[in-house]
Design goal:
With 379 residues, the chain is of the alpha+beta class. The protein is 20% helix and 33% strand. The protein folds into two domains: 197 residues, Box (Proliferating Cell Nuclear Antigen); 112 residues, Proliferating Cell Nuclear Antigen. Strand 15 and strand 16 form a beta hairpin. The N and C termini lie far apart (51 Å).
Length: 379
Amino acid sequence: MPALLITGAETEAFCERAGGQVRTALARPPGVGSRPGAAEARTEPGTRVPAPLGPGGRAGRAAPGTPADRKDLWHAAFPSEAPSCLCCGVMKFLAKITGKGRLELFIHVSGTVARLAKVCVLRVRPDSLCFGPAGFRGLREAGLWCEAGLWCEAGLWCEVRRGAFQQFHMEGVSEELDEIHLELTAEHLSRAARSAAGASSLKLQLTHRRRPCLTVAVALASPLGRARSVVHDLPVQVLPRRAWRDCPPPSLRAADASIHLPRWRTLRSIVERMANVGDHVLVEANLRGSMTLSMETEVVSIKSYFKNLGNPPESAGVPPHRDLESMVQVRVDNRKLLQFLEGQQINPTMALCNIWDNSLLQLVLVQGDVSLQYFIPAL
């Protein structure tokens, strides 16, 4: 079947010609040169899913401890779903988002992740979805960071809690390991989510269509009163359990200084100007609500001061001998800091900057059920 390139302007007319539904599928799995815009209109019957693979690629049995009636409980929750659409080994996942505010938030989250990571790992847990970089060595070594100061590269960790979804059901490998780890191209998810602008709902589902896919089904509103939907099949790689240790959540000791960030536009404007002058920026903060950004070159010296920003309550529990006026500093790559300031698309209700002296800069954004952390190592 020939490939069809579907653009946003053509989607509505194409849906009408396709009888109210169109399914788009990327031609190749992530990392094999697939064009994100390439789509194939198709309908196919349910496909039989092979048994889960055990060690060495051999077919194995379902993990011990899995109740025999889990499939019955799943179908009780989703009676209209065909069995072939629910299985990917022994793991299942389905979540649904409704409401304009929640849909816009998910679109912004997926767009932010795509701007900051080309390939990401989607970690599905019973209470949340977590996005992290694929093969992020820095997070793997986070446990060693407190002792040896190890941090390899900049990276993000974004968590979308269960409250952001109207429906959320998942079944992991077993009751003891109730998680699913999927590696996918972040831009593919962002493009699929953007098609939900103005839609009534968006559904995420782990499916198997010749290969494991994260299916994004968007229910579109129709001026003629006809139900229409656009379905995107995003190829994913289901990570084995031995690879889970490469993407744990960050775990760090308490920061040396934590402070609220100034106005986002002001901060981004200052960093943009500094990026045009030099490659490094020195970030300093204390526990009295003061923060400075500075840089020096052979010909120019720039320093910006912020006062009365406020510190989060957690920073109040400092040792008695700590001088609250003393500045904690970290020198970071200006391009990485600017990449985060320009790439994030959510409207946070809380924005924090955490500094580990001469070691690490952490930026934290929180909006409702979404929290995003971005790490930049010291130079």
